[in-house]
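Support request, priority: normal
Reporter: lab tech (M.K.)
Component: structure prediction queue

Hi team, I submitted a job for BPL/LPL catalytic domain-containing protein from Oedothorax gibbosus yesterday, and the status page still shows it as pending. I've pasted the exact input below so you can check whether something in the sequence is tripping the parser. The sequence length should be 319 residues. Please let me know if I need to resubmit or if it's stuck on your end.
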Amino acid sequence: MLSFYISRNFRTFSGISQKQAADTILDTLHNARNSIIISQSHDIYENLAFEDWLYKNCDLDDKDSSFLLIWYNGPSVVIGRFQNPWIECSVDFCNANGISIVRRNSGGGTVYHDFGNLNFSFFKPPNNYNRKKNLEFLCESIRRRWHINLRVSERDDILCNEQYKISGTASKIGRTNTYHHCTILVKADELKLRKALHRELESITSKATSSTRAKVINLNSISADIDTLKVVKAVTDYYKLIHEVEDKNLLCLRPNELICPGYESIKENLQSWKWLFGGTPEFKVTRSFKMSSLNSSQTKSNPSCEIVLTVNKENYTVH
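Reply from support: The job had stalled in the queue. We restarted it manually and it finished. Here are the results:
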């Protein structure tokens, strides 16, 4: 497994107590002008819970400050807040292959994560929220090292060579804080990505937000020199340059309850059936079945039976 300790300048908090580490980290997040945080967790629930904890607990209103959270996970399918998991992915394939299915707190479409996919969360005050600017920053971070043709589309995706998507994007905006998170496909397992995101039930009628399908490509397919850690290095170096991040504000940490009080309850909610499946907007599943005639002499065609299952957050009905 890759290590995210990419530079000796990053503070890893080894050799001190958890209480000392917690005090130092909280002080940095609340008082530093600009910071970079690299999560040492590779668990999708831990990382999404940490991101949500930062959103709820870091007040950036009226501050000229921002911070960047960088994280990656084992194989996972992450659906948007208002999506239907049975439409967005193959639940059976994911369960059979150890791929976690998770509902995040932000809107937007479904993305596939694994160790070849990087995630970047930009935290900024509401008056400085700008998704395109963040995406242009990522494009330039990569272009200045590898000279790859990247641009931000009208849908706020990052496109490679004008046709292949390498990044999906979503955001959450609050009164005192905002985050915009996006992915970068570096060397993801494209076969598992396609199978995991296969639409399983085409007969669903749903009020849920539906993802827009697109052709994707890994950056490593464009340049064999690119790997995950090199992209992290390119992004952190450029962020440090343009945001004047001091070394003391470069943090490597694994989130836990001591550092982030209330973090465990956020994680437990993300792991719950009620949040993942129970939070699905109302939908209908329609199935038709051919039935054999009791008396073949009465009709030359077999009748059919249609069953409609309507599901919402409170109950379900069958017609």
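The chain has ten helices and 16 strands. The first helix runs from residue 18 to 31. Let us know if anything else looks off. Ticket resolved.
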